[in-house]
Amino acid sequence: MQLESENRSFGGRQQRYRHTSSTLGCEMTVSVYLPPQAETGRVPVLYWLSGLTCTDENFVAKAGAQRAAAEHGVAIVAPDTSPRGDIVPDDPDGAWDFGKGAGFYVDATQSPWSRHYRMDSYVTEELPALVTAALSLDSERASISGHSMGGHGALVLALRNAGHYRSVSAFAPIAAASRCPWGEKALGGYLGDDRSAWQRYDACALIAGGAPLPPTLVDQGGDDAFLERELNIPLLEQTLADAGAEARVRMQAGYDHSYFFIASFIDAHIAFHAEHLAAD
After folding, report:
1. Is 3 within 8 Å of 101 (Cβ atoms)?
2. Average pLDDT for 198-202
3. Does residue 280 carry a pLDDT above 80?
């Protein structure tokens, strides 16, 4: 990995790297926060997945997560939200909810997307191997979190990879991607018209199908403009209850879909993950 930038933050280091991804077939950037504890040994890691239109930089600049990460000794790895570059296909109509910036954390099966849009494999396989080899991260102690499309990604990847993550959390996740306009467009484009194939990337469908879920925390803003049309949080609550999952879903009155919402509760999410990431 090539270090592009570095800033001191709460005794640790906020870094940005560039690397060539063999999984995605393009150059990628990834932001990493290393807490001060990484100076003397390996530290646990929280993977953060951002939402539609975002890059690796939105979370690290807007969420204010570094202070809590330094306090708890947790590294944060924030990848980009899709493959990038001139060789990567984009939405032919220039829409913001598909193509670049909107990888939906799936491994696409349809042309022309299948060559580059393999964010599932990138986040769960290539990226952890890369950052663990290069940095002071403990690969055995990993958790995952995200917002909106990234909340969908965090839940789905935790469900699809039993034992890979010790805990999962989400802010305003797209909880049932096969049953909302954003998800229908993305899954239909990346995976094709067979809706049964979409179930592999639908958190509620995976939970209902018996996929094991690690300890889970979800925060949802009560004034989120996308709550009714896109997120399906009541369905998530019912599906979790029916499955008897170890999960908390909290409705936060007055909060919206923005990073002001994330910044208000990110400390609680990092503390939640730190508890589960503690050394055995």
Report:
1. no
2. 98
3. no
Instruction: Report d(CA 102, CA 181) in Å as an integer.
Output: 14
For residue 21, the surrounding DSSP H or E stretch is strand 12-21
Global pTM exceeds 0.85: yes
- Please tell me the total count of domains within the chain: 1
255 pLDDT more than 80: yes
Which residues span the domain enclosing 248?
Answer: 2-277
Which structure tokens are listed for 70? 């330094």
Are 28 and 17 within 8 A, CB to CB?
no
Gyration radius of the chain's alpha carbons: 17
Supply the CATH number for residue 179's domain: 3.40.50.1820
Side chain identity, residue 150: G
HSE-CB of 266 using CA atoms within 13 angstroms = 23
- How would DSSP label each residue in 244-274? T-SEEEEEETT--SSHHHHHHHHHHHHHHHH
Kindly list the catalytic residues. Answer: 148, 224, 257
220, pLDDT greater than 90? yes
Instruction: Please tell me whether residue 208 adopts helix, strand or coil conformation.
Output: helix
The alpha carbon dihedral of 184, 78, 107, 206 has a sign of negative
Residues 249-257: what's their mean pLDDT?
Answer: 98
Asked if 269 and 276 touch (Cβ cutoff 8 Å), the reply is: no
Among 216, 212, 101, smallest CA distance to 154 is for 216
Q: What is the CA 202 to chain-centroid distance, rounded? A: 14
Let me know: does 53 contact 102? Beta carbons within 8 Å: yes
51-99: pLDDT as tens digits: 999 999 999 999 999 999 999 999 999 999 999 999 999 999 999 999 9
